[in-house]
Design brief:
0% strand, mainly alpha
């Protein structure tokens, strides 16, 4: 995947998580400091807040049977709201473009990854 537009749209960060871990339980496994494994994985390059956000969205998706399109919609809303508050406002458009460019890869991986996640 191309370099992440910092701080990281949830679609892009979730795709990194799904590529780095076999399932959500592995990504959420806590280390000795009680941080999820995804936060310390070298292939997951989003800001800590965005990694946590992506993990929360993935948990919501698993627990409620959310479609990839619903995930993307929620991720887009969260991205826009956060950028409009001034948090890395200059990343709004390039980050959204990156998420849009990753849409097909995200949907394919999401559908495959959630087949392997225990209910």
């Amino acid at each position: 995947m191309q370099t992440l537009v910092y701080p990281g749209h949830a679609v892009a960060v979730a795709l990194q998580i799904m590529n780095a871990f076999p399932n959500l339980d592995a990504a959420n496994k806590r280390d000795d400091d009680e941080f999820p494994a995804a936060l310390n994985h070298p292939e997951v390059t989003g800001a800590a807040t965005e990694v946590f956000s992506a993990l929360q969205l993935l948990t919501w998706a698993r627990d409620y049977g959310v479609s990839p399109e619903q995930f993307i919609q929620r991720a887009n809303e969260t991205w826009t709201a956060s950028r409009m508050k001034g948090d890395h406002a200059d990343a709004l458009e390039p980050g959204q473009q990156q998420a849009d460019d990753l849409r097909d890869a995200f949907i394919a991986k999401y559908s495959q990854w959630f087949e392997t996640v225990p209910a």
